[in-house]
Amino acid sequence: MDTGEPAPDFSLKDQHGEIFTLSGYRGRRVVLSFHPLAWTETCTRQMRALEENWQEFDALGAIAIGISVDSVPCKRAWAKAIDLEMTTLLADFWPHGGVAQDYGVFDSERGVAERATVVVDEFQHIIYAKRSEPGGVPDLQEVIALLREEEESRVEEINVPKI
User: Fold this and answer.
1) pLDDT tens for the chain, residues 1 to 163
2) What's the rounded Cα separation, in Å, for the pair 148 and 61?
3) Cα angle value 36/41/50 (rounded, 5°)
4) Rounded distance between C-alpha atoms, residue 66 and residue 43, angstroms
5) Can you give the residue ranges of the Thioredoxin domain (predicted)?
């Protein structure tokens, strides 16, 4: 999981049973928020933080996604229980943790994803990858700052007069 690498494409079902395919979001930045398991206090804080910041992500041309090895019915019940309305939760259920493995964030001893954040740019390359400390919630302000910085540099590139 290194920056600059192509992001592995994947298709997973979300909490509504709909298929989410990463390559379907080409042209948009995607924040992949890996977490170990639904129904835990830290994972709940992590997903609520995505929900609280969804408008900010949207304004920056990004979508934030939660991913864990839980099943679709589990994700559906958890999303309802913690009042997630805008945040997409993906079930990396089968093959068990396959996407987390592809991104190098699968903890094979525990059988769950590590807590990690990966940002994929609009060209499907990894531009940010960071694991969180055990028990810690990812710093979304750091991710938002990166997205803003990229947005500003893109605008500057567009506005540079050609000679």
Assistant:
1) 789 999 999 999 999 999 999 999 999 999 999 999 999 999 999 999 999 999 999 999 999 999 999 999 999 999 999 999 999 999 999 999 999 999 999 999 999 999 999 999 999 999 999 999 888 899 999 999 999 998 887 766 655 565 6
2) 10
3) 75
4) 9
5) 1-152
Closest CA to 144 of 61, 48, 45: 61
Pairing of strands 19-21, 29-34: unpaired
Catalytic residue among 7, 12, 22, 43: 43
Ordered structural domains, the chain, with CATH: 11-159 (3.40.30.10)
CA separation for the pair 86, 127 (Å, rounded):
24
What is d(CA 71, CA 110) in angstroms, rounded to the nearest whole number? 16
When computed from its CA atoms, the radius of gyration of the chain, rounded to whole angstroms, is 16
Token couple for 123: 């060209």
Active site residue 43: yes
